[in-house]
Specification:
The chain is mainly beta and about 280 residues long. Helices cover about 5% and strands about 55% of the residues. The chain is built from one helix and 15 strands, in the order H-E-E-E-E-E-E-E-E-E-E-E-E-E-E-E. Strand 3 and strand 4 form a beta hairpin. It is globular, with a radius of gyration of 19 Å.
């Protein structure tokens, strides 16, 4: 329960606001739709595993949504709402600039001993990075991408992390029969300890995507965003399933539900979001 107490009655994360965002975003994409001149939008949402390919030179893509996470433990229960957002800018056909953040975060908590309820809110740190599409798929070799980024201490005071935290991820994607794709993402990340030291932890994700038709796709994944010793918070792991629905050539909405696989991970999370490309 280490969130900043910046407001007592946050009103920014309402279902009505999200519906308006989806409607306005996709209406704008429909007005700008380019037909079949290029491939339909390929979003990094809603799963943990990143795409191995960039969005293309001169393209700009926004991926945003609402994430609800519920956690429980001996200390009590927590319900966190956040607005994870990624802005992707195509520098070249193989290089992409990325700026992302969990955005506005609101934590509702209940203490197990006293029953006291609190609401805390603030803004998360920002991450800036580069995605390099190293190679296209060829034969048994996967489509390969490398993502290098660093999280900066730009958030609200009590949400702000210590120092710069870099990470490195490698993504490999294989096309499978039946309009399926398998993606694997190992990686390493550096975090700062409260005492001033640093530690490195692993991360890993594996996802399977199935395209049912030209508009509908399904995803299933196993995500381990942190692989670490108990001293550093332990390993976090979850399994999830989701859907993506292509509304226009340049606009997709998505949703995903995940369950935590151990006590270090929120026991349930749900997200709904929008990806739009210009």
């Amino acid at each position: 329960m280490t969130r900043s107490l910046l407001c007592r009655s946050p009103q920014g994360l309402s279902a009505r606001s999200l519906v308006m965002l989806l409607a306005l975003g996709c209406a704008g994409a429909a007005a700008q739709e380019q037909g079949a001149q290029d491939e339909p939008i390929a979003s990094g949402r809603p799963d943990f595993v990143e795409s191995s390919e960039g969005i293309g030179k001169g393209r700009v893509q926004l991926e945003t949504g609402l994430l609800s996470e519920r956690a429980r433990g001996d200390a009590g229960r927590e319900h966190t709402l956040s607005t994870p957002t990624t802005l992707r800018v195509g520098v070249s056909e193989t290089l992409e600039l990325r700026v992302e953040s969990d955005g506005r975060s609101v934590l509702h908590s209940r203490d197990a001993a006293s029953g006291a309820r609190t609401t805390q809110a603030g803004y998360a740190d920002s991450t800036i990075g580069l995605l390099w599409h190293v190679a296209d798929a060829r034969g048994s070799l996967p489509s390969t991408g490398v993502l290098v980024d660093a999280t900066l201490p730009t958030g609200s005071r009590l949400l702000r992390g210590e120092g710069v935290r870099p990470s490195l991820r490698v993504v490999g994607s294989w096309d499978l029969p039946g309009d399926m794709q398998l993606s694997v993402m190992p990686g390493l990340a550096v975090e700062h300890e409260d005492e001033g030291g640093r530690y490195t932890h692993g991360l890993f994700g594996i996802g399977l995507e199935k395209r049912f038709d030209a508009r509908l796709r399904g995803v299933a994944e196993l995500a381990l965003p942190q692989i670490a010793s108990s001293r550093h918070g332990g390993t976090q792991a979850s399994a999830g399933i989701g859907l993506g629905w292509l509304l226009t050539h340049d606009c997709e909405i998505d949703t995903m539900f995940s369950r935590g696989l151990n006590h270090n991970t929120p026991y349930a999370s749900f997200t709904v979001g929008l990806s739009i490309r210009r």
